[in-house]
Amino acid sequence: MSASSKIKLRANEADLFADVVPIESRLKPVTAITSFVPAKKVTSVCTFIDLFSGMGGTRVGFELACAESNVAARCVFSSDIKAHAIAAYQYNFGHAEKVHGDITAIPVDSLPNFDYLLAGFPCQPFSAAGKRKGFLDERGGLFFAILSILRQKKPQGFLLENVEGLATHDKGQTLQHILVELEKLGYQVTWKILDAAEFGVPQQRRRIYITGHLKNKIELDNFATHRASVAQIVEHDAPVVQTKLTKLLAEKFKPEQMYGKAIKDKRGGGNNIHSWDLELKGAVTEAQRELLTLLLKQRRYKKWAAQKGITWMDGMPLTLDEISTFFQHPALKNLLDDLTDKGYLTFEHPRELVSKNGITSREAALHVPKGYNIVAGKLSFPIAKILDPKGIAPTLVATEYGKIALSLEAGVRKLTVREGLRLSGYPESYKLDNLSYRDAFDLIGNTVMPPVIKAIAKRLIA
Ligand SMILES: C[S@@+](CC[C@H](N)C(=O)[O-])C[C@H]1O[C@@H](n2cnc3c(N)ncnc32)[C@H](O)[C@@H]1O
Question: What is the distance in A from the centroid of ligand 1 to the CA of 52?
Answer without folding.
Answer: 3
